[in-house]
Amino acid sequence: MPSLTRSQQPLIIPVILSGGSGSRLWPVSRSSFPKQFWPLLTDKTLLQETALRGEKAGLGQPVIVCNASHRFIIAEQLRAIGIDDACILLEPSARNSAPAIAAAAFLIAERYPEAILWVMAADAAITDLAALYATLDIAVAAASQGYIATFGIQPNKPETGYGYIERGEALSTVEGAFHIARFMEKPNLAQATALVQNERYSWNSGMFVARADVLLREIETFEPEIHSCVGQAVAQRQTDLDFERLAPEVFDKSPDISIDYAVAERTQCAVVVPARFGWSDIGSWDALWEISSKDTSGNVAAGNVFLEDTRNCYVRSDGIVTAVMGVDELIVVVTEDAVMVSHRDRAQDVKKIVTRLTDANCPEATSHNRMYRPWGFYESLIRGDRFQVKRIHVDPGEVLSLQKHFHRSEHWVVVAGTAVVTRDGEELIVRENESVYLPLGCTHRLANPGKIALTLIEVQSGPYLGEDDIIRLDDVYARK
């Protein structure tokens, strides 16, 4: 873990949870590249916007808790905005928010047990930073006194996709904070309509502000198994390049439970701070439509989109021309390999489509055509019987693993940049418009020694072309 800068009293450390798949924003958001890694509102991704909130406030270096398969994406996106000292904590499996938060708290408490954690999801939008920081000040004041503070978002409509918090009596020692009377599950529409009329109720933002030692104490009180398993996983962690990898043998035994159920709804020291800072969890395409800039007809158009006689629609294309005409209240999302059309009031049901696609073993349910790797990315262009054509992009200075295949041969054609190819111990320089053949079973490696990106076309041929037919003999990224 990098050294934490103690720039203020108390030390406040952003803890960013980046474990969700965002399936309600399918087909853009998929488990291979979920919504927090996409620039859905500005030219920065949701993860970058989240990390910059802590950076702009001058807080401690962030701790990111994430899926191990996303570690290189996260590191690269943080470096792109100038954050190169974050601690990236890798979960060996998804065990929900309580174990994830416990892991961050254990890690931080090793050096600063009284540091205050500002726990937040990586994929929410906030439009009013000044109001956010004013609200954070109140939450920090409460956390400094041993409370676990959460932000209660003032509702502006009957929302059935969020849980609710009922505030109780005011906290006498911190102006603007209130005891929590109760937490409520996601209501039906009739209940939500009644709740939005009552100023005591707010949306549960899922953000928490608390001291590391307080969180650990409450987790040990209510979920001692989480405390034990995660504590051991942190103690037995291994440093992997720039990452901290939790010990899987013990972490995987931790109960799968959210921090709300594990602690927030059971502790006597939870408080809520009512908030108005333009928050949205962007949990559906309709939510994204609501917070995006619209044209005079109420439409949001993103990408190569043309609209005619269309009102109050969200239309996005990440590639091909998309024309929409004569419709109202629709969501149309087009990617390279999928199209999704829904009425806006059915936006919450996109997850049902993803479930059906998953049950049908459709790879589009979880994976994009473009797959990111620590060295760059690849994407399939054509796939047929016993052959596949891919585009491979290698960033300057990067190198792929030394590997071999048992079921396919490969032919590489360089179309931009210069490649250094290792083939059975022989090193070859392959320039633009040149090619190299890699027979089945040969040991090979690809590197980009240049200052510009390397692009090549790969033609695979063989009876089996799956990505699991890769035997890695050496890898600078320590992948298996």
From TrEMBL:
Matching entries from PANTHER family are given as:
MANNOSE-1-PHOSPHATE GUANYLYLTRANSFERASE
Q: What's the short name of a Pfam family annotated to this entry?
A: ManC_GMP_beta-helix
SUPFAM superfamilies in the record: Nucleotide-diphospho-sugar transferases (SSF53448), RmlC-like cupins (SSF51182)
Question: What are the alphabetically sorted keywords of the record?
Answer: GTP-binding, Isomerase, Nucleotide-binding, Nucleotidyltransferase, Transferase
Q: What are the Mannose-6-phosphate isomerase type II C-terminal domain coordinates in residue numbering? A: 364-475
Cross-referenced InterPro entries: GMPP_N, Man1P_GuaTrfase/Man6P_Isoase, Man6P_isomerase-2_C, ManC/GMP-like_b-helix, Mannose-6P_isomerase_type2, NTP_transferase_dom, Nucleotide-diphossugar_trans, RmlC-like_jellyroll
Question: Which source organism?
Answer: Asaia siamensis
**What is this protein identified as?**
mannose-1-phosphate guanylyltransferase
GO molecular-function terms, A-Z: isomerase activity; nucleotidyltransferase activity
Q: Which reaction does it catalyse?
A: alpha-D-mannose 1-phosphate + GTP + H(+) = GDP-alpha-D-mannose + diphosphate
Q: Which residues form the MannoseP isomerase/GMP-like beta-helix domain?
A: 304-357
Q: Where is the Nucleotidyl transferase domain?
A: 14-296
**Top-level division of the source organism's lineage:** Bacteria
Question: Which EC numbers characterise this protein's activity in its record?
Answer: 2.7.7.13
Give yes or no: UniProt keyword RNA-binding.
Answer: no
Which protein family is it in? Belongs to the mannose-6-phosphate isomerase type 2 family.
